[in-house]
Design brief:
This is Alcohol dehydrogenase catalytic domain-containing protein. Keywords: Metal-binding, Oxidoreductase, Zinc. Helix 4 (about 145-160) crosses helix 5. It is globular and about 55 Å long. The N and C termini lie far apart (about 40 Å). It has 5 helices and 9 strands, in the order βββαβββαβββααα. It has helices spanning about 40-45, 95-100, 140, 145-160, 175-185, and strands at about 1-10, 10-15, 25-35, 65-70, 80-85, 90, 110, 120-125, 130. The strands form 3 sheets. The chain has a 5-stranded antiparallel beta sheet. It has a two-stranded antiparallel sheet with strand order 1-2. The protein has a two-stranded antiparallel ribbon with strand order 6-7. The protein is α+β, with helices and mostly antiparallel strands. It has 2 domains: about 1-135, Medium-chain alcohol dehydrogenases, catalytic domain (Quinone Oxidoreductase, Chain A, domain 1), CATH 3.90.180; about 145-193. Helices cover about 20% and strands about 25% of the residues. It binds zinc ion (2 copies). One zinc ion binds near residues 38 and 40.
């Protein structure tokens, strides 16, 4: 299969890669239906790099697809399910994972940054990193679930209330998603510049 590979500093290349296989009974294989380009991808590909990444990996950490194979212990999804991907992998057994803060996992990694990701046709992902989504949500919309989840978390932390004034610093794609998220919290007068 063809894949967008982080070849070397400043360079992504289309390369032929082997079809990935399940590495554990809890893995799933998905057929990628959509993958987006994040600002982090641009930083990874800058020279000098603005974000670390592993040379040789398939880039793309914002992606979604259809489950085509599941490990024998996978219960959360089935073949044929449409899923979104959480690209942050966690160990599940360190102190932070055990207290319910996997975002601080001592052994976390990231699909599409340090491990193979979604700029390709098929991807193997731990089943705990995929979440079922309705087939009525178009792939090009569903692929924004990862940045949207960051926005929802940030909006909850800021605790915006109706009538509050909010400044969003940075008007890129994530800024636009933040704008949508903040608006849904009740900010009614909006100026996007
Ligand atoms: Zn990203
Ligand atoms: Zn952990």
């Amino acid at each position: 299969m063809l894949a967008g590979v982080f070849e070397k500093t400043g360079s992504v290349a289309l390369q032929e890669k082997e079809m990935p296989t399940l590495k554990s009974d809890l893995d799933v294989k998905i057929k990628v239906l959509a993958a987006s380009i994040c600002g982090t991808d641009v930083h990874i590909l800058s020279d000098p790099p603005g974000h670390p990444a592993t040379t040789g990996i398939i880039q793309g950490h914002e992606y979604m697809g259809e489950v085509v194979e599941i490990g024998k212990n996978v219960k959360s999804v089935n073949i044929g399910d449409r899923v979104i991907v959480d690209p942050t992998t966690t160990c599940g057994s360190c102190y932070f994972c055990e207290i319910g803060k996997p975002n601080m996992c001592e052994h976390s990694s990231a699909l599409g940054i340090f491990l193979d990701g979604g700029w390709t046709s098929y991807s193997v992902v731990p089943s705990k990193n995929v979440f079922k989504i309705s087939k009525e949500v178009a792939p090009e919309i569903a692929v924004l679930a990862e940045p949207l989840s960051c926005v929802i978390h940030g909006s909850e932390r800021v605790n915006v209330q109706p009538g509050d004034s909010v400044v969003i610093v940075g008007g890129g794609s994530n800024g636009a998603v933040v704008y949508t998220g903040i608006k849904s919290c009740g900010c009614s007068k909006n100026h996007l510049c």
